[in-house]
Amino acid sequence: MTDNNNLSVSRRRLLAGSATLATAAWLSPAFAANPGLRSTIYTQHTRPPILPKIYGGFIEHIGNLINHSLWSETLDDRKFYFGVLEKPEPEPTDRRARMAMMQKWLAVGPISAIRLDTQNAYVGEHSPVVALDASQERGLVQHKLAIKSGVPYKGRIVLRGDGAKVTLRLSWGEGQSVAHKISTTKKWKTHHFTLNPNVDTTDARFEIVASGKGNFSVGAVSLMPGDNIKGFRADTLALMKEMNCQILRMPGGNFISAHDWEDSIGDPDKRPPILDPVWSAVQPNDVGVDELIQFCELIECEPFWCVNTGFGDPRSGAQLLEYVNGSADTEWGAKRAANGRKKPYGVKYWAVGNEMYGHWQRGHMSRDHYTVKHNMFVDAMRKVDPSIYIVAPGGFVDEMTTGQGIFIEGQPEVKVGSERDWAYGMFKDSWGKFDALGTHAYPPANKRFDLKTGKLYDVDLTLNEWVHQMPDRIRTMADAWEQYKKHFPKLNDGQVKVYFDEWAFGFEDNLKGALAIGAAFHEFFRHTDFIDMAGFTMATGWLNFNRTQSQLSLKGLMFQLYQQRFGTIPVEVTGNSPTPKPKYPIGGDQPSVNTGGDVYPLDVSAALSEDGKLLTVAVVNGTELPHSFSLSLDGFKPKNVGTCWKFTGPKPDATNLLGQAPQIGIKESAFNTTSGSLAVAPISVEIYHFERV
């Protein structure tokens, strides 16, 4: 994600800007020819369809990731987990700590005038109480707030006191401010207010102050831009809807193993703020069960809910399912109805546990113990709703070997059927208790796994090798799947699937990272017989954003390009230039065959539309040189003119910064299908449409 203070660029402006890029030299169609490179596409040799779920996403509460990207709350620590400080703390430099960083409340006036009431706290462990003085304002303030012009800010505050008149003041610049006054009562009362600063700034201040006699207490406070939609930011919500994501896994991730879902339902101001021990971050529990599922409804996406099988227990899992899917006359369905949602959500997809093979998960246990726990969860949940689709944590041997399993000195490679082979245990002891196994992959850039030592080491990779690190990890999982089918022949009937429900590579948003996404898609397309779903980490990576501005990232644009332009029925692609043989020992992160296909150094994939009238050919060129290749279409006669979309830019590290003119664009053009060859730009992804005569 990008976080800067430049003006935002709308999707429409970005596309308009990309049109002006068409004249740039790096988009020129005049390329050097490579007459020896040939490919044939056999359109009658098809594979199972590409499901829309392959373009899915994954999000979790890592620090403030969701709170500061999708949620519209302007204030941090709005329920005073950290109390009130006398002076600002130094900002952390560690990346993980910065992800968890929140603006803290500071004292206005002497810190000695503020105490934390633990006996009559409104929510959480304590609530601040301010002792007043007639000679000065006292209270609390939060600095460095981002606000935007053009919308009023809607707020609410829970107060009590002995009649003190509290001023809510939003300030910026040199003495500019807007304010609202509220009189307190002896009992806690929620007050609503509106402030209209009409300014763009990242350095606003929000004060809760009063002067005079007596005291006042603050239970909770909220401030949101008035254009929020059910609490979500209007801008990032619109972009996520534009992404047309068909399935979204949430709310964890590692986060889920220590999360109590009951803390995240009901009145948001009464949900306790908690310290998430997994990411060492305070969560206000504002974006909870109802909010996240309703977010999916707003963007027209299938929710894929992850259940806590770490510190959680089967009864809690069943109660969560009843809260989500039960009718309003059930115990937990009635609680959902009381919280404002009478109609059940009808969530179909459930991840029962996350990476429970990993020692980092809260509640981790041995494989043989965990399969018993998994079965108990599934039995309890299917009693509530037998129609749900269950995805269990896989832990295939490739994943267990390359850092996800329990390392044993001298035995770095996890073998199929061994005690450390988690997926084998799930197949053996939990067959029938899941519909799919989940797998995760985050290959570290420019590193390889040493099968002898079990450690990562640095390697010098060509750009094309770098682009294919992610596809290689997908292929290692496919190699593992072939081994499992020999041990469990029932896998050959195709009923059990794989959900690649967490994957990412090259977290920077640049052109080469976008190419890696394209190459990963190609590898997914080669295994549609058993890979049904993929969840990109994080789904918010489809956006570049700060606290008030956003635009689609290059990753988002690459997802859109394939989802909108690529076909549905994969067909066979052959060529006369296979990828080089593996130069590393097979196993771990090295598949049996290097990915990319047989038109090396290009990676070519093709698919028909559902009605067979359109053939799409996608080419990833992970080199800095232009290439051309001759193309034969077997069983498909196209019209003379087709359409091409070229996704490219000036250099591998090029990016589109938030609010600045784009360096990378998509050029649409017509091409002559009768030429018998395609010319491919350097560092590019290109999709060609051939219409059947």
From TrEMBL:
Tell whether Ribonucleoprotein is among the UniProt keywords: no
UniProt-listed Enzyme Commission number(s): 3.2.1.55
* Single Gene Ontology BP annotation: polysaccharide catabolic process
Query: Superkingdom, according to UniProt?
Result: Bacteria
What Gene3D superfamilies does UniProt report for this protein, alphabetically?
Answer: Glycosidases, Golgi alpha-mannosidase II
Answer yes or no on keyword Signal: yes
Keywords tagged on the record: Carbohydrate metabolism, Glycosidase, Hydrolase, Signal
Q: Extract the signal peptide range.
A: 1-32
> Domain Alpha-L-arabinofuranosidase C-terminal spans what residues?
501-684
Reaction catalysed by this chain? Hydrolysis of terminal non-reducing alpha-L-arabinofuranoside residues in alpha-L-arabinosides
- Complex formation: Homohexamer; trimer of dimers.
> Which family does the record claim for this protein?
Belongs to the glycosyl hydrolase 51 family.
Q: What is the protein named?
A: non-reducing end alpha-L-arabinofuranosidase
Please report the organism this UniProt entry assigns to the protein: Cellvibrio mixtus
